[in-house]
Amino acid sequence: MVEVKIIKDEESATAFIKGDIDHHTAKDIREQIDAYAQNNQIKLLKLDFSQVQFMDSSGIGLIMGRFKMMQMLKGKVTVINVPSHLKRLIKISGLLALGVIEKGEV
Amino acid sequence: MAQLKNEMKFEFISKSANESFARATVAAFVAQLDPTISEVADIKTAISEAVTNCIVHAYKNGLGTIYISVKIFENGQVIIKIRDKGCGIENISQAMEPLYTTGGAERAGLGFAVMQSFMDNIKVTSKLEKGTTITLTKNIIPRVAKNGQ
Ligand SMILES: Nc1ncnc2c1ncn2[C@@H]1O[C@H](COP(=O)(O)OP(=O)(O)OP(=O)(O)O)[C@@H](O)[C@H]1O
Ligand SMILES: [Mg+2]
Question: How far is the CA of B95 from the centre of ligand 1 (A)?
Fold first, then answer.
């Protein structure tokens, strides 16, 4: 189960993801975020992970996919409020090299 | 050889809604070994990876059955097998390389790397057109040792 709430602040938007991110829920999250970013000319997309209970590599794919989507919109992605139980997964994912994780998050 | 404490098997069709069912079911069974929250999270993540692979790769052209068996031992060892009768893997060592994926833009190619890092051991056997079996092992540290007594 997953819920996405998107809040806009000028050219940036924060997507608050609440629940589990797996292959099943990722599709729904992706569709909501992509439609919003494209329709609202978002330049900075923040993904707030503070309410993510569970995540597997589908969540890493979701972040990489939004990175590419925002690149096409000439914008950026950043992941914020990574809970401690997801830090090991983020560390082994190589996402740090992509520059989408804020300094000091993991 | 450690003494078997308990064993269970279940199977389900390859619908993505069953990913959360599968990991929650295995976690509930393994709870008998009194694992920590972090040990449970590791197992759930590895199960989610293996089951998702059956759904998105093994049975990419339709629905099939996914078989899971779990054995737990008195010494805290957990052995989980996830089996499909799907397309099989041609080159296992290539498939297990981090970032290797045949799944397209939304897949990271990290499932095997995650299983490797979150579990103590992984074994993959596969046959083209026959299917794949993933055997995952994790050693749950007994509570006494955890408390440092
Ligand atoms: N059960 C399976 N049956 C057939 N092919 C598989 C199976 N599991 C994995 N593979 C193959 O191995 C590759 C690597 O799997 P892995 O889980 O590491 O990455 P992924 O599934 O592609 O991406 P991610 O897990 O990050 O979403 C897959 O792209 C697929 O080609
Ligand atoms: Mg995978």
Answer: 7
Could you give the CA distance from residue B26 to residue B46 in angstroms, rounded to a whole number? 11
Angle, helices A23-39 vs A57-72, to 10°: value is: 20
Domain B4-141 listed as CATH 3.30.565.10: yes
* Model pTM score: 0.96
ipTM of the complex: 0.95
Does the CB atom of residue B45 touch ligand 1 within 6 A? no
Q: Ligand 2: distance of its center to the CA of B55 in Å?
A: 9
B122 C-beta closer than 6 A to ligand 1: no
Chain A, chain B: beta-carbon pairs less than 8 Å apart: 67
Query: pLDDT digits over B12-29, tens only?
Result: 999 999 999 999 999 999
Q: Rounded CA gap, B115 and B138, in Å?
A: 11
**Residue-wise pLDDT tens digits, B97-126:** 999 999 998 999 999 999 999 999 999 999
A chain contacts of residue B17, beta-carbon cutoff 8 Å = 24
CATH code for the structural domain at A3-98: 3.30.750.24
